[in-house]
Amino acid sequence: MANQMLKNIEAGKAMDMAALVAYQEGQIVSRTLTQNTAVSITLFAFDQGEEISTHESRGDALVYVLDGEAAITIGETAHAVKAGQSIVMPANIAHAVKAAGRFKMLLVVVFPGR
């Protein structure tokens, strides 16, 4: 697969996405699958209580929870998002992610065209 745009993931093989990133005590672990001017795809594993503080992104961000549960705040609204569920954090709206317990997510950010 010479010019594979996805990295840190094996092509042509079915896999368990949650197994591609491991929990580590007191940390947020990430595994970038691709990142460019159009899209960013990253796997995350959050230990309990770990968080990404309030910030904004210039792209729409889709969170798909692979394991556990997250407390996701978008603007002033808090959401409990569990394994198998997803939520979109719109571009240019403040948002934050906190682990209610250990949790894993797939984050896809789609950036606006130039």
How many β strands by DSSP?
A: 9
Poorly predicted segments: none
Helix content: under 10%
In order across it, which strands form the biggest sheet?
1-2-9-4-7
Shape: globular
What is the percentage of strand-forming residues?
over 45%
CATH superfamily: Jelly Rolls
What is the third-level CATH name, the topology?
Answer: Jelly Rolls
The domain tally reads 1
Oligomeric state of this protein: single chain
- CATH class equals Mainly Beta
Write the layout of secondary structure elements.
Blueprint: E1 28-35, E2 39-46, E3 51-55, E4 60-67, E5 69-74, E6 77-82, E7 86-89, E8 95-99, E9 103-110
Antiparallel strand pairs: 1-2, 2-9, 3-8, 4-7, 4-9, 5-6, 5-8
Q: How would you characterize the overall build of this protein?
A:
With 114 residues, this protein is mainly beta. The protein has one domain: Sandwich (Jelly Rolls). Helices cover 0% and strands 51% of the residues. The protein has no helices and nine strands. The chain has strands spanning 28-35, 39-46, 51-55, 60-67, 69-74, 77-82, 86-89, 95-99, 103-110. A five-stranded antiparallel sheet has the order 1-2-9-4-7, with no helix packed on it. The chain has a four-stranded antiparallel sheet with strand order 3-8-5-6, with no helix packed on it. The protein is globular and about 40 Å long. The protein starts with 27 loop residues before the first strand and ends with a strand.
Short characterization:
It is built from no helices and nine strands. The chain is globular. It has strands at about 30-35, 40-45, 50-55, 60-65, 70-75, 75-80, 85-90, 95-100, 105-110.
